[in-house]
Design a protein that fits this description.
Largest sheet: none
Oligomer: single chain
Helix content: 55-70%
Order of helices and strands: HHHHHHH
Shape: globular
Distance between the termini: 61 Å
Number of domains: 1
Number of strands: 0
Radius of gyration: 18 Å
Structural class: mainly alpha
Length: 182
C-alpha cells in the first residue's frame, strides 16, 4: 500500500490539476476566431506594459492634474518589471505550457520562467494604481483581467502563473499607493 503524497509534492500535484482544469475551460473557446483575436490582442497590448503606458500618457496629455498619477504609474511599472521579470522569475524555473499545434495568430514568446506571469502582475498593479481616485476603476480592472486571462488562453502561462502574478501585482500596487499616495 502506497502512502498518500504530502507536502510540497502534493501542492505541485494539486496546482497541476488546477492548471489542467482551467486550461480545459479555455479549450472550449480556443479556435473561435473572435475570441482568439480578443485574447491574442490583449496579450500583445500587455507586452512591455504597452497598454498601461498608453493609458497613463493619454491621461497626462488630457489633463495636467493627471500627470503625477501617470508618472507614478510609469515609474512603478518599470520597477515592477525589473523586480518580477528579473528577480522573482529567476527564483523559479517553471516551464511554460507545451503547445503542440500552431498558434492561430502572431505571438511574442517570452524567454523567462513561466512563474509568475509578468503580464498579470503589471496589469493588476496598473489597475490598482489607475483605479486610485478614478471613476473608471471598474474598466481598468476589467482590462487587467482580460490581459491576465489572455496569457492562459494563448498558452503562454499556466493558470497558477497568472494567479501568482495577480497576487504580486496587487501587493505591489498597494505598496506603491502607500509609498507614493496621490
Amino acid at each position: 500500500m502506497t502512502e498518500p503524497t504530502t507536502g510540497p509534492a502534493q501542492l505541485w500535484q494539486t496546482l497541476d490539476q488546477w492548471d489542467d482544469t482551467v486550461d480545459s475551460w479555455f479549450d472550449r473557446v480556443r479556435g473561435n476566431a473572435a475570441v482568439d483575436r480578443l485574447f491574442y490582442g490583449a496579450a500583445e497590448l500587455g507586452d512591455h506594459s504597452l497598454v498601461w503606458h498608453l493609458i497613463a500618457a493619454a491621461s497626462a496629455a488630457a489633463s495636467l492634474r493627471a500627470e503625477p498619477k501617470a508618472i507614478r504609474l510609469m515609474v512603478a511599472l518599470a520597477a515592477e518589471s525589473g523586480l518580477v521579470n528579473g528577480l522573482v522569475k529567476s527564483l523559479f524555473n517553471r516551464s511554460r505550457p507545451i503547445v503542440e499545434q500552431p498558434r492561430p495568430l502572431r505571438l511574442r514568446i517570452p524567454r523567462t520562467s513561466s512563474f509568475p506571469s509578468g503580464h498579470a502582475s503589471s496589469a493588476t498593479m496598473a489597475a490598482v494604481l489607475l483605479a486610485d481616485g478614478s471613476r473608471l476603476g471598474t474598466a481598468y480592472k476589467a482590462a487587467a483581467a482580460l490581459v491576465a486571462l489572455s496569457r492562459i488562453h494563448v498558452r503562454i502561462h499556466h493558470a497558477s502563473d497568472v494567479a501568482g502574478g495577480v497576487v504580486v501585482g496587487a501587493l505591489l500596487g498597494r505598496a506603491v499607493k502607500r509609498l507614493r499616495p496621490l
